[in-house]
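Notes from hallway chat w/ T.B., transcribed later so I don't forget. T.B. wanted the structure written out for a chain they're using in a teaching module, and asked if we could keep both sequence and structure tokens in one place. Agreed to drop them here.
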Amino acid sequence: MWTLFDPLRGLYFHLHLSGLRLIRLWRHCSTQDDLVSRARAEGADVELDDIEGLIRFLQANHLVVATSQQDQQRLSDADSSRKTSGVNWLLHHYLFFRIPLVRPDRHLDSLLPTARRLVSLPAQILLLFLALLGGYFVVRQWPDFVGTLLRFLSWEGVFWYALALMVVKSAHELGHALVAKHYGCRVPTMGVAFLVMFPMLYTDATDTWRLENDRDRLRVAMAGVMTELSIAVLATVCWGLLPEGPLRQAAFFLATTSWMTSLLVNLSPFMRFDGYHALSDIWGIRNLQPRAFAVTRWWLREMLFGFREAPPEAFTRHRRQWLVLYSIGTWIYRFFLFLGIALLVYHFAFKVLGILLFVVEIYWFILRPIMSEVSEVSRRRIPWNIRTALTCSAGCLILGLLFIPWRGHVTLPGVLEADAHLALYPSEPARLKQQRVAQDAHVEAGQVLYEFEQPEIAIGLIQAERQLQALEARLARRAGSAEDLAQQGVLRNRQAELQAEVSGLESRASSLLVRAPIAGRVDMPEALHVGQWLDSRQKLADLVSQRSVRVNAFVQEQDLERVKVGSHARFIPDDGNHSSVLLTVRDIDNIGAERLAYPGLASRYGGPLPVENRRRDESDGLRLEDGIYRVTLVPDKAASLDAWQVYGEVSIEGPAESLAGVIFRHAASVMIRESGF
């Protein structure tokens, strides 16, 4: 391969030996036949079709002088085709565009001797030793390292990480530029590029295409990563040696930023960062992504329709499989990356831009490639074979699943619980004297379950009774005592006070007997023992009525119209210990629920119902997001319940609906919900 450089546009083209010979003879020939004759005279096997192909290649890439009116018209048409409206320009360039800032080429020569000393063999040995030392410091102080990382996950930490990122990325790009300059390449510009409006530095190392050795290009591609890793090693060692203070924190920011950006961002081969260029050089495939995409499009057409066309390039079967896997991985990676950026913009910037980015990415990464392939295939004559038959069958099946109404049930999260349930607590802090009930025991209303004692009450009752007896004795003998006869009114008032005190203490002593308010089954959260002191807030047991049960389910607003009162349903428990229960919808709330009484259904704890991530105070509970309604269901037949609450799913009969209808309804619901922005 030979490289042809266009200095005006900074583009490189690769030619085989035959193309190189034809270009060398170009100026010495006036006609195509003359060019074929001269080439054959030099031993080249050239046909007239080769000349015409070369001419088409040169004209398509604007590598010939425009001398005729036809050539000028072709250039004018090409220039007009590049001009687009503002909207089209934004759609094509918002994903990625560059702004050059400096022209560093002449300044790199003065930095090159110092850079060469930094990558000499002694410096590499020293860096390896420091890497081992830094790893030792991190392992030895691992809790401190992790604690520092978590402590700076705040807005202040984001600021310092952004500052460290600027320093690290500047050194990263300088590493690319210096290694490219070392191999004799020009570095015309360095600047800032925007990936979905996110800024990042870049170095124009296009001139590395002139390098003949793939290993040299690989060294240029990996120079930035190696620079970042060197900074990470030095910063990690400094973090391990420095005392607490600003310098140690700065070293920590440089170390963690360098490690994360190098391993997670720069080495990714799916974006055109260092990992992509390194993979291109390792495989020896220049312009890797466009060529991989072309091979994958051909592979898809052959798999779906069996056109039996020649592949766009002659790769081995093994290499072709890797290219297909790489291009599919690139499409998936880019889709989720840009979708994630759109969600970040939606939540942290302003929602209109987030929605627009989401729509653009759905069109760009899903609809546009499909429309392009449909248009390309429609221009061909589709052969009828087994692959075409399977493709048509699969397409009909997918369309049927999407548009034929076949989903006739609405599945909701729900809780099966006893219709009556009470929690039992001590009336006041007391000591357990006797437990008269066991776990899962069935009790009747009024039955004594727990007997507590309170020494203060017993002592107070004895003292009050003795005082009352003494006072009553004085009143009985008042006729023989002038003093008692004179204080008769005071003694009777004191008698009434003592009688009230005794009555109150007897009432408190009676309340220490915990009785069952209703009949049901006892469910104890923990075992108790005689003599144990219990607080009035400590639960003794749950008393579950087994006479009736109910199910509380929750439906989102977009599915509310499909749930009707009187519809039949089935509750399917999650625990596997209870059998399913046939139900009927009894009631549907008209107002959305504000709070959720079942933590197991909350998204905060892994449940399906969305709740606010942070509550305002401890008493605020689990606050549901808008559009959640409670549905109450009752069993068709009498049912008993061993546990007082069982989580599960409720499948309610509803009108049949297609998947396309579900998708449209959910999308419309989101748009309506967010229309207020």
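Follow-up for T.B.: The longest helix spans residues 317-348. Might be a good example for the class.
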